[in-house]
Amino acid sequence: MTAVASEGVPETRHQLRQRLRSTVLGPRGGGTTRRRASDAFRLALAVVVVVVSIPVMRANSAAELSIVRAVHPPPAARIILAVILAAGIAATLIALVPRLRWLASRQLRPHLLNIWANVKTVAAEPRKIVYVLAGSTVAQLLVILALGAALHAVGEHASIATGRP
User: Fold this and answer.
1) DSSP state of 73
2) Residue boundaries of the structural domains of the chain
3) Where are the beta strands (DSSP E) in 6-153?
């Protein structure tokens, strides 16, 4: 009778509480729990960075205005800033949450090492760098010509230099 009464919600709440506790607190030994100092420091640093960033973003600083002017169309600047912000949030989460850090090191590290090995291989020979840059340029020019042909087929035209009619 007692086994049936103890099943269910209270046990799952206890397991959830234990998981959350093990995420915030260090491993228990001898019945004691200790806060992980490095995790608390990282959390405090992330909070400080966010708190300092908010007034800087609202102040329309000269650096931000120059970035927006460099990336001429405002929608493109917003997309770039959103990507940078998303990358920063992802990096902060990976740095703060141990399970995410473990998952990132297990899943992403082999790919990043492979990419780094390829970059070193290409950078070792200047001829390969020229091949990569020339290939990218030729591919972009072919896309421009194909889009120009498509516009010409429907009776429109656009300038390659500005992208405007």
Assistant:
1) S
2) 37-101, 110-165
3) none
